[in-house]
């Protein structure tokens, strides 16, 4: 099967990078697929391209509403049909949900992005059972594992989607998963005869350094000041820590912003 022509047609690329080609072929061959690929490795194209090539609608499960919207907008930008991609979540009103269902029934929608909490609603499950589903992609698949860093209970019910069609393949994607998390994901999704595609977490454009410090805030401030003409990301364990660090950096005259879903809620 020629997958380079569709790559050029839809995305304007002449070649794949990394494991993309192997992953896409695996999905097109309807094999259960598990992909461990670092951020920036091009995971989204691995399910977007086969969705555009396949008959029916691919379901993409994602925990991040903002990410879903960005990807929907991007796919709509390469198609003449706005309904080629849709989001289905709690942000939609009844008329918008009706439009989504209509586009799916009429074979227009190739990618349906769904939050896991919405997907397990009986209304949606009953509707999707009547549709042609090309495959199910699970983004941020570590969320299904109780050993993962962002466990979400609704993810544990994703395997119920096999009721839509026992022969529909599942493709799980994550940037980080040790062996314990990987095995847990495979078990909870019921991935039999799964094809594993894994690349190194190391990236040539990222340098890693490890420091020990009794005063983490002071050490972080020191590092930020030493990299004054550069930009970076500081990860914190809680949202409260994010706020405190952000205020400290700003008080020292450094430009910083907070980013975290639901920043209004404290942990």
Number of strand segments: 7
**Helix percentage:** 25-40%
Spell the H/E element sequence.
Answer: HHEHEHEHEHHEEHEHH
Summarize the biggest pleated sheet.
7 strands, parallel
Based on secondary structure, the structural category is alpha/beta
Q: Output the radius of gyration.
A: 20 Å
Tell me the strand order in the biggest sheet: 3-4-2-5-6-1-7
Number of helices, counting only DSSP H or I runs of 4 residues or more: 10
Strand content: 5-15%
Mean pLDDT: 86
Shape: globular
What separation lies between the terminal Cα atoms? 50 Å
* Low-pLDDT segments: 261-267
Give keywords.
267 residues; alpha/beta; 37% helix; disordered C terminus
Would you write up a description of this structure?
- This protein is of the alpha/beta class.
- It has helices at residues 4-11, 20-28, 43-53, 65-76, 94-105, 116-119, 122-128, 179-189, 216-226, 239-251, and strands at 33-36, 57-61, 85-88, 111-114, 133-138, 169-174, 195-198.
- It has a 7-stranded parallel sheet with strand order 3-4-2-5-6-1-7, sandwiched between helices.
- Helix 5 (94-105) links the parallel strand 3 (85-88) and strand 4 (111-114).
- The relative contact order is 0.14.
- Mean pLDDT is 86; it is low at 261-267.
Task: Give a short synopsis of this structure.
The chain has 267 residues and is an alpha/beta fold. The protein has 10 helices and 7 strands. Helix 2 packs parallel to helix 3.
């Amino acid at each position: 099967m020629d997958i380079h022509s569709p790559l050029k047609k839809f995305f304007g690329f002449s070649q794949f990078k990394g494991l993309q080609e192997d992953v896409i072929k695996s999905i097109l061959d309807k094999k259960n697929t598990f992909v461990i690929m670092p951020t920036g490795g091009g995971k989204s194209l691995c399910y977007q391209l086969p969705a555009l090539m396949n008959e029916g609608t691919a379901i993409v499960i994602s925990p991040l509403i903002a990410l879903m919207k960005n990807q929907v907008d991007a796919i709509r930008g390469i198609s003449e049909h706005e309904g080629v991609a849709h989001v289905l979540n709690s942000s939609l009103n009844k008329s918008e949900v009706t439009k989504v269902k209509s586009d799916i029934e009429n074979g227009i929608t190739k990618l349906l992005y769904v939050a896991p909490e919405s997907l397990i609603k009986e209304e949606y499950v009953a509707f999707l059972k009547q549709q042609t589903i090309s495959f199910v992609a699970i983004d941020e698949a570590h969320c299904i594992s109780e050993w993962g860093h962002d466990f979400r209970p609704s993810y544990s019910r994703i395997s119920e989607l096999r009721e839509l069609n026992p022969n529909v393949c599942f493709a799980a994607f994550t940037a980080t998963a040790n062996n314990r998390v990987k095995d847990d994901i495979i078990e909870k999704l019921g991935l039999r005869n799964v094809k594993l595609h894994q690349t190194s977490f190391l990236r040539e454009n990222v340098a890693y350094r490890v420091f020990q410090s009794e005063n983490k805030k002071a050490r972080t401030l020191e590092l930020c000041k030493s990299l004054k003409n550069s930009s970076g990301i500081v990860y914190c364990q809680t949202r409260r820590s994010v706020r405190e660090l952000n205020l400290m950096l700003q008080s020292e005259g450094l430009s910083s912003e907070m980013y975290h879903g639901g920043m209004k809620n404290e942990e």
